[in-house]
Amino acid sequence: xxxxxxxxxxxxxxxxxxxxxxxxxxxxxxxxxxxxxxxxxxxxxxxxxxxxxxxxxxxxxxxxxxxxxxxxxxxxxxxxxxxxxxxxxxxxxxxxxxxxxxxxxxxxxxxxxxxxxxxxxxxxxxxxxxxxxxxxxxxxxxxx
Length: 144
Ligand code: THU
Known about the structure:
The chain has 144 residues and is an alpha+beta fold. It has helices at 13-24, 64-74, 102-111, 131-134; strands spanning 34-42, 47-51, 80-89, 117-121, 126-130. A 5-stranded mixed beta sheet has the order 2-1-3-4-5. A hairpin with a 4-residue loop joins strand 1 (34-42) and strand 2. The longest helix is centred in the first third of the chain and has 12 residues, at 13-24. The structure holds tetrahydrodeoxyuridine.
């Protein structure tokens, strides 16, 4: 596979997808019944899990990716190498990839380099993108 990203850390993409599948088990999705899991890898190899958490007042919902980022940042982490994301109908194995929504891409942009890896799996194949590919010509902290 073509090498992407600029991290010195050796990233086991299959393992990160397994971690995201594990995180997905804790999704709270009584409204959409669409369960998403994320596994965020820090530069030192530390992992943070995230799952989507929905709210009866729907805009209060938090995506899996942002749950993972906010957990990590609130614990003092700022150095991130990659995130794996998996999602699909609750109670079923993922059958297609679950690309991060626009809001999550922008939040990742706040803390991650263009070379940060976004690892997506449909349960069979892994597709890997850089954040720069998913959010080109982006607005970030250095634009202010
Ligand atoms: N969702 C995520 O957790 N991550 C994404 O990037 C896409 C959408 C969640 C939000 C909501 O709980 C459910 O999937 C349906 O939109």
